[in-house]
Amino acid sequence: MAYTGANGSFTINGYTGVVRNATVDISRDALETTNLGDYSRTYTPGLIGATGSATFIYESEVKSNLIANVLDTTTARDTAVAVTLTVGIDQTLAGNVFITQVGTSVSVGDVTSTNVAFQFTGAPS
């Protein structure tokens, strides 16, 4: 299942930035339960996980905060940050994430943007 927002809002660590796009992918592992001697594979549902990414139209405050989060080598890095993705009416996804990547890109004649990737810890809601 994927949530994608082109015109939604995206709040990360209490800061709502202007987003160009945001995506969250939710998946569930399939655990094999096949027994020796079976002729067909069988599975049971496993753990749920979610990852995501967002592209902010250049916001120096959010970029600085996200880069500081990735580079933090203190014990504070063990603290997840809160994210909320809202797409349309009644389509909100929220949870706690660890920031896994931050980058900046610019195209000729385009505005600078900040890309961020994240891994959910716990279940998104």
Give a structural overview.
The chain has about 120 residues and is mostly beta strands. It has a single domain, classed as Elongation Factor Tu (Ef-tu), domain 3 (Beta Barrel), CATH 2.40.30. The chain has one helix at about 60-70, and strands spanning about 1-5, 10, 15, 20-30, 45-55, 80-85, 90-105, 115-120. An eight-stranded antiparallel sheet has the order 1-4-5-8-7-6-2-3. Strand 2 and strand 3 (about 15) form a beta hairpin. The chain is elongated, with a radius of gyration of 18 Å.
In brief:
By secondary structure, this protein is mainly beta. Helices cover 10% and strands 55% of the residues. It has one helix and eight strands; from the N terminus they run E-E-E-E-E-H-E-E-E.
Question: What are the defining features of this structure?
Answer:
Elongation Factor Tu (Ef-tu), domain 3, eight-stranded antiparallel sheet, 125 residues, 10% helix
Average pLDDT, all residues: 78
Q: Could you say what the CATH architecture is?
A: Beta Barrel
Helix content: under 10%
Q: How many distinct folded domains?
A: 1
Cross-sheet strand order for the largest sheet: 1-4-5-8-7-6-2-3
Strand content: over 45%
Instruction: Provide the gyration radius in Å.
Output: 18 Å
Would you tell me the structural class of the helices and strands?
Answer: mainly beta
Task: Determine the N-to-C terminus distance.
Answer: 13 Å
Order of helices and strands: EEEEEHEEE
Poorly predicted runs are none
Main beta sheet, described? 8 strands, antiparallel
Number of helical segments? 1
Number of E-state strands: 8
CATH hierarchy class name = Mainly Beta
CATH fold name, please?
Elongation Factor Tu (Ef-tu), domain 3
| Net shape | elongated
